[in-house]
């Protein structure tokens, strides 16, 4: 493709420049085809784009579409970028030269926008060339990168209609990315049972044993270098797709925190999946919901985090009735999608023993998040307590409370409680009584008996 000589800094990182040249090309293509002119890429109509860091520029640079692929991409994009373009150009041509039913297309029910069909693409690219029309049809097959990336699809035609009579539809997130430059995730629902989670903190705030940190570092190295291995090293065919990790340990030991830090470190969004929202009482709905979730995660390179995974990934039940049989089918389907997912998939469980043994073998890493010992607790208290009062007073306070067995999450809750109580007194000094009251509540919340340690008042 030819690249116009224009400075990137003059363009910005939006799609405007590439959309302008793309819609101009599509306009000339429609006019040339209906007018009987030459549409060969080496003729008057050539492919141009700006490698400007925009979503559209990046897509063209990375995929390097051929002429036919580029035209189909533009046909799918036109209703979102310039809804009136195809309608105007076709109508002007029809007024001058007669009726062209072979141009295909359909009207959107609400907007009345002209939506191109496979027939539209075949007419513009091949006209009456039968072999050329078959080549166009092949571009909509499941193995083509249009389908693999979820970029666009050819809707199934009505019964008895030609194969190319279906509409060319671009997915909503890709349409947003290639126009306004960003795509919002669908709202949380049974059909999209996931919420984005993030953190502003750093790895220094996560206190873990050395072995746990080393395993997390291995996961980070995979995220940073898996594309290098697959492409530069030509190792892709020998690599299993994706990376599956099991985080297991008591609540509050840092499993969710670690997942958000992985996302921040790798530039990926992390979505926590609500397994209770996935399971549907309607047969087939669970698989449909899971499929939509995994397809969105694949397209956007998300990290999927299944919290409390025991709910669905646990040991499968003996089949006593049709409900048990369908529940096991749900688990099997979910395991299949997890294994096929080419990104990072993390399952979190309070107990490793709760996860089906057959599935444990599929993990790349099984990472234990133990409850913190005295040294780890001291470090967590140091990070969690606010910087108010003197350092000596904070050090004495930590020395007196460090013997209470709490998880990192529990310690953060206590620090927040004590800080609020101090602020309510307009006091810059934390007091032992507030901290111990917070500790009592955390311990009793877990069903344990609080015993005040000696040496405290």
From TrEMBL:
Which keywords has UniProt assigned to this entry? ATP-binding, Hydrolase, Metalloprotease, Nucleotide-binding, Protease
Give this protein's Gene Ontology molecular function annotations. Answer: ATP binding; ATP hydrolysis activity; metallopeptidase activity
Q: Which InterPro entries does this chain map to?
A: 26S_Proteasome_ATPase, AAA+_ATPase, ATPase_AAA_core, P-loop_NTPase
Matching entries from SMART domains are given as: AAA
Q: Name one GO biological process term.
A: proteolysis
What is this protein called in UniProt? ATP-dependent zinc metalloprotease FtsH 3
Q: What is its EC number?
A: 3.4.24.-
Q: Which Pfam families match?
A: AAA
């Amino acid at each position: 493709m030819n690249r116009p000589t224009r400075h990137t800094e003059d363009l910005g990182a939006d799609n405007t420049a590439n959309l302008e040249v793309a819609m101009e090309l599509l306009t000339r293509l429609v006019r040339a085809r209906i007018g009987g002119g030459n549409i060969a890429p080496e003729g008057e109509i050539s492919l141009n784009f700006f490698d400007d860091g925009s979503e559209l520029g990046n897509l063209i640079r990375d995929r390097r579409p051929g002429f036919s692929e580029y035209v189909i991409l533009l046909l799918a994009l036109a209703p979102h970028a310039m809804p009136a373009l195809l309608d105007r150009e076709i109508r002007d041509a029809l007024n001058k030269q007669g009726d062209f039913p072979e141009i295909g297309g359909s009207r959107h029910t609400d907007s009345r926008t002209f939506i191109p069909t496979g027939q539209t693409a075949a007419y513009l690219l091949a006209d009456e060339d039968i072999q050329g029309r078959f080549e166009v049809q092949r571009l909509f097959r499941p193995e083509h990168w249009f389908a693999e990336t979820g970029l666009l699809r050819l809707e199934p035609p009505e019964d008895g209609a030609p194969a190319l009579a279906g509409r060319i539809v671009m997915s909503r997130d890709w349409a947003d990315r290639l126009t306004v430059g960003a795509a919002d995730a669908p709202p949380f629902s049974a059909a999209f049972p996931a919420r984005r989670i993030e953190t502003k903190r750093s790895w220094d705030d996560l206190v873990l044993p050395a072995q746990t940190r080393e395993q997390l570092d291995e996961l980070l190295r995979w995220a940073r270098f898996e594309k290098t291995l697959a492409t530069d090293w030509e190792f892709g065919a020998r690599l299993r797709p994706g990376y599956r990790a099991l985080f297991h340990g008591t609540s509050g030991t840092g499993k969710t925190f670690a997942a958000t830090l992985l996302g921040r470190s790798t530039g990926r969004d992390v979505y926590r999946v609500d397994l209770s929202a996935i399971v549907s009482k309607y047969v087939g709905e669970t698989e449909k919901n899971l499929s939509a979730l995994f397809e969105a995660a694949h397209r956007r390179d998300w990290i999927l985090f299944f919290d409390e995974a025991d709910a669905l990934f646990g040991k499968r039940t003996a089949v006593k009735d049709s409900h048990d049989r369908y529940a096991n089918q749900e688990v099997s389907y979910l395991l299949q999608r997890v294994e096929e997912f080419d990104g990072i998939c993390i399952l979190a469980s309070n107990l490793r023993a709760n996860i089906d043994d057959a599935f444990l073998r599929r993990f790349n890493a099984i990472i234990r998040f133990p409850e913190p010992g005295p040294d780890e607790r001291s470090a967590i208290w140091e990070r969690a307590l606010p910087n108010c009062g003197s350092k000596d007073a904070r050090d004495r306070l930590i020395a007196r409370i460090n013997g209470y067995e709490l998880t990192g999450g529990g310690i953060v809750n206590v620090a927040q409680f004590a800080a609020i109580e101090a602020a309510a007194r307009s006091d810059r000094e934390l007091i032992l009584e507030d901290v111990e009251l917070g500790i009592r509540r955390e311990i009793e919340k877990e069903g344990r008996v609080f015993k005040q340690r000696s040496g405290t008042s």
